[in-house]
Amino acid sequence: MVEIDPTEHEIADLGPKVNGVDDIEELEAMLELEREGPDRDPVKTLIESRIETLEAEAGGDEAAVDPAEVDPAELSLAEFANMVRDVDDVDLLRDLIERERDGEDRDGAITQIENRIEAIEGTEQDEDDEGPEYVPPEEKHPDLDHPTADKTYVEGVSGETYRDMWVYCETQRGELVDASKEILGKARELMDGYADRYGDEEDVIAVLIGDDVADLAEEAIAYGADRAVYHDDERLDRFRHKPYTEIYAHMCRDFEATWRDYHEPRYNVFPATHNGRDLSALVQAELDSGLASDCSDLYIEEAMISNPAKTGTPGDSEEFERVLHMPRPDFSGFEYSTILCIDKPHRDFHPQGASVIPGTFDLPDPDPEREGEVVEHDLDLPDDWFQVEVVEYDRLEEGVDLTGHDVIVALGRGIGDDPTEGIELGLDLVGAFDDAALGLSRGVITASYEFASHVEDYISEERQIGESGQVVEPEVYIAAGISGAVQHKVGMDESDTIIAVNEDPEADIRGFSDYFVEGDLFEVLPRLTAAIEEGGSVAAMEGVADD
Amino acid sequence: MTDADAAGAAETADHEHYEAVVVGAGPGGAAAAAALARQDVETLVLERGVDAGSKNVSGGLIYAEESAPYTIDGLFPDFREAASERPVDEYYIHNVAGDRVKTFDLDRVHHHDTDWCDSVLRRRMDSWLAERVHELTRETGGGLLTEVRVNGLLRENGEIVGVTCDEIDPIRADLIVAADGVNSELARDAGLMDWDDPDDWFQGVKAVVDMDPDVVNDRFDVDPDGGAAHLFSGDLFEGVRGGGFLYTNEDSLSIGTVFHLDSLTAERAEPHELLDGLLTHPLLDRWLQGEYEEREYSAKLVPDSKKVAHPSPHRGRLLLVGDAAGQMQAQGPIIKGMNHAVTAGGLAAEAFVEARTRGDASKAGELYERKLREEGVMEKLRPRRYRASRAVSENDAVNRLGSALIDSPLGAAGLRAAEGLAERAFNSPLLLGMVPDTRFSYVTVPSRIAEVLGEPIEERSYADSSDDADDEDGVRPPDLADRIGDLTYDVGDPHIELLDESYEASGAAVTACPVSAEAFGGGCYRDERIQTNGEEKRVVSLDTQPCIECGTCAVVADTEWEHPSGGKGVEFKEG
Ligand SMILES: Cc1cc2nc3c(=O)[nH]c(=O)nc-3n(C[C@H](O)[C@H](O)[C@H](O)COP(=O)(O)OP(=O)(O)OC[C@H]3O[C@@H](n4cnc5c(N)ncnc54)[C@H](O)[C@@H]3O)c2cc1C
Ligand SMILES: Cc1cc2nc3c(=O)[nH]c(=O)nc-3n(C[C@H](O)[C@H](O)[C@H](O)COP(=O)(O)OP(=O)(O)OC[C@H]3O[C@@H](n4cnc5c(N)ncnc54)[C@H](O)[C@@H]3O)c2cc1C
Ligand code: SF4
């Protein structure tokens, strides 16, 4: 059995998954499943190219050029780099430099050889030494300015303790945003398996900053956090860079807090919303770590790293544990790269930070029974953090939500003879119910009809019902002058009772209506309105409807 | 330094550069890319569909001509086994008048200069070609990218140096092959083609109809590895100039119509109704026998090479091949577009490699033009005979005279006496090349042949005549709303903008658009009346969601017309 069955996934999220598989046999099995199943070409290509990559890695360069013989001029820089990487003989490398100098004399090629020589000679020396001697950057490059020189957290703190996955819980209008709930769910999933793999439990920490967010801290626990740390202050009612960044960073390094005994969070995850993007970059910079922005997946795994900048010893590979793998789309989604954030010998790269595209993970169901600890963060906020004043703000039109009403009155191109009156009649009927809203077919929205200004605002895609609009399931759906095209049908046919008003007894909508009123909507709608206003119930309409 | 850095450092200009970029992965683009890659030219192919073939429609019989310098199986050796449907060895034309039909065997013209001829479905064919192309081009450092729409030419100091795309950064290249089919945005951008005159185009509309392989063999009386083609002309299309076709596939039939766009527009005919007229004609019941399951409805414009094949299809580094250059030959009823696209693709590649070897890649265009001429391609596309005869035969007076003759008892007697002669005339590639584009030759002559020589069509299949005696037509094709509903769309931003919504300027699209119709609210173009200050105006409105990107309204309506972005719009599964 394979761990990832490609046939159960959309193409879009297979990219990072497939590239995480290292076992060729497993990949072959996945390929077979895909062939027998949906047989999607892009998926096959994806798996095949992964196999190719692995085979190439395993087999080395089959068509290897012989560095002793080759004329460097025949190689592109990339080919040259590949070849040089495999040469360990320093004399041969020096000879190559000569040949390159005699030939094309490309700076890029020569630097590559020199680096390689340095790497090899470095390793040889290191066998006696402790490793390359560490010189702080200020001493090594006194000519440069060092903006981080005064930051106590930058250098020399690696080897510290890090724990827990922290999740920034953004709020909007007093509610947790979905993107943060999604991340809480994912964080829960990652940390649930954590103790089994690494021996000790680590927690999901929810971070809330704002005005009146204490209640939301409870909610964050219901969505998967073990502990919610919040900072309440009425000055925090709107997102502002300075105070939010300072508070978040302070929480990360709050060595006074009794609930924690570690240096910094191990992982920081933010939603890649507008504010989340801002905050993630600022906080991670303040903590002198890195950030993988706009990620499309997250998983924790070990990583073999041979880059001497990370291992400290050229030529050696070292396994890093508990590394957060952060795949993200590049080149508008044509490629995926997986970003890792790993400490250097003299430089801490924690917390490992990511922001995640909203919608990447499923929205979890809250569990109100979940237990967790709510911690109020304690810090005086100096006034000069609030120098930026929000003088005015505007809430973007929230859009029209047609779901959740008892009744929808939807109008179609049947209003064409007098579009303005048609809308008015529809609105009258909407008004006759306690909880109704006006919907439209796409046919009306894309028409060239001219509407009088008092109804014009209703004509927008926000009211479209169907495949490319909203999907509604009210108790009663009244479709007037709508033919019932399949693209409209999929947006409404789960409604409890469907009543159609149409002149044409052959109209498709008749096939999926509970009541079909054959007639001119300009006559029928006012009668319906009157009937509802008198009878006050849907049942009253049965007088008008028959079928 | 990583490999990627090294490769990046070698890049001089700010845009990525390839030796050749090929736009479009139809037969023309596939041929060009394969020929380039075989000559080690670093080639990148860009295709807007989710998959090559997902945007393409043809009838489709692909010919391998004996006289052609390139054929599809020459460039892609396993083509026939892997990507085509059936070899088509039988070829008939049915001249229809009312319920009379006279059938001619066009065996001779079908086999003239033909090495082989197979039926194809484009999704299967093009996606197979694309896999081969990807393998070949990847070897050169390029490859094939789908879901990328090229939206224009990249120019520097007025000179064409590459292409720009919706999805990725601009790309520079020493050679740009525009194999982007009919309604080529690149040919338009370069000023080599315009989309103004309906007279230059045909509109093809097609239904792919499900049929079990055994049933195909049986009803068409062909071997499992054989197939048949049937053409239809005469009075079954309400006087619109054009004809119908039926080709056997492995387990389906391709049934369609091809009409002159000017005639279609002038008659305000509804393309889907004309197709239905053919599908429900008693003649077809011979094969359908009351059963009809439509897998897909599709349409596309078809250039008429006699009018628009560009005599000099290049500008700077840009070379046009295939439909983009108007290289689609209608030889009477025989439609040859794919094979010429393949030839042109091969020649364009050859020209580039030759020019580069001679040290001046910029000469590729001239060399390509010369090769088209010297290899005889141009003569097939724009025969001199046609140019000579057109002036006379398209003249109305001559036509009227001709009609009078053929309608007279004397004409009928002559026809009868000359029955064999008529069949021979149809079988002459020379005469077919001269067929004038008039109602006379498309409608009058075939109808008259049927009236005078034809036999009544046999009785309807008992299947429906027995249970339902007064059933008007044999089969019942789906209506337009269902046809649209059965297609797959990934709706993007509107790609067509209506510039003039008045009925005078754009009303022709209401009927000519194959997914629109008078009194149908679910189409792209809808006829509407609006009241402004008590005055009624007749206008059209446009919704591009049901659009199948056939290109018709680019010619017959006043629009700003582009293709949708990569991966967006309609997706054909058969094609
Ligand atoms: C109904 C019908 C019947 C026909 N019957 C026959 C027949 O029987 N035999 C025959 O030989 N010919 C037939 N033809 C004609 C034939 O289909 C064409 O001549 C042939 O497909 C032309 O090939 P091409 O490679 O030039 O273009 P196409 O096959 O049209 O390929 C163009 C490609 O370019 C892509 N593309 C377009 N614009 C862009 C862009 N901006 N960016 C990226 N990609 C782009 C398209 O998606 C497409 O894949 C028929 C056509 C029709 C419509
Ligand atoms: C990819 C795609 C996505 C789409 N997505 C959607 C979508 O999300 N939502 C959507 O709605 N559509 C969608 N459509 C469009 C859909 O196919 C139809 O075109 C559209 O729903 C038709 O709108 P209509 O029923 O108002 O108009 P029509 O189909 O024109 O129907 C009008 C009806 O009104 C009746 N009528 C006329 N006059 C009167 C009168 N005086 N009194 C009573 N009845 C009268 C007529 O008999 C007719 O049945 C989509 C199409 C595509 C291709
Ligand atoms: S809208 Fe234009 S391009 Fe689209 S299907 Fe109709 S005629 Fe063709």
* End-to-end gap of chain A: 54 Å
Percent strand of chain B equals: 25-35%
Helical content of chain B (DSSP H or I, runs of 4+): 25-40%
Major sheet summary line of chain A: 7 strands, parallel
Give structural notes.
The complex is a heterodimer of chains A (547) and B (575). In chain A, the strands form four sheets. Chain A has a seven-stranded parallel beta sheet, with helices on both faces. Chain A has helices at residues 11-19, 24-36, 41-59, 77-85, 90-102, 107-126, 137-140, 178-192, 194-198, 214-222, 241-252, 274-286, 308-311, 419-432, 442-445, 453-456, 486-489, 521-535; strands spanning 162-168, 171-172, 175-176, 204-210, 227-232, 264-271, 292-295, 299-305, 318-330, 335-339, 352-356, 373-376, 407-411, 436-440, 476-480, 497-502, 515-518. Helix content of chain A is 34%, strand content 17%. Residues 125-131 of chain A have low confidence and may be disordered. Chain A is an alpha/beta fold and 547 residues long. With 575 residues, chain B is α+β, with helices and mostly antiparallel strands. Chain B folds into three domains: 12-85 and 120-193 and 310-381, FAD/NAD(P)-binding domain; 87-117 and 197-304 and 406-432 and 438-477, D-Amino Acid Oxidase, Chain A, domain 2; 480-561, 2-Layer Sandwich (Alpha-Beta Plaits), CATH 3.30.70. Chain B is 37% helix and 25% strand. In chain B, the strands form seven sheets. In chain B, strands 1, 2, 7, 8, 9, 10, 16 and 17 form an eight-stranded mixed beta sheet that branches. Chain B is globular and about 70 Å long. The interface between A and B is medium-sized, with 33 and 35 residues.
Quickly list its features:
heterodimer; A: 547 residues; alpha/beta; Rossmann fold; 7-stranded parallel sheet; 5-stranded parallel sheet; 18 helices; 17 strands; B: 575 residues; alpha+beta; FAD/NAD(P)-binding domain; Alpha-Beta Plaits; 3 domains; 8-stranded mixed sheet; 26 helices; 37% helix; disordered N terminus; binds flavin-adenine dinucleotide; binds iron/sulfur cluster
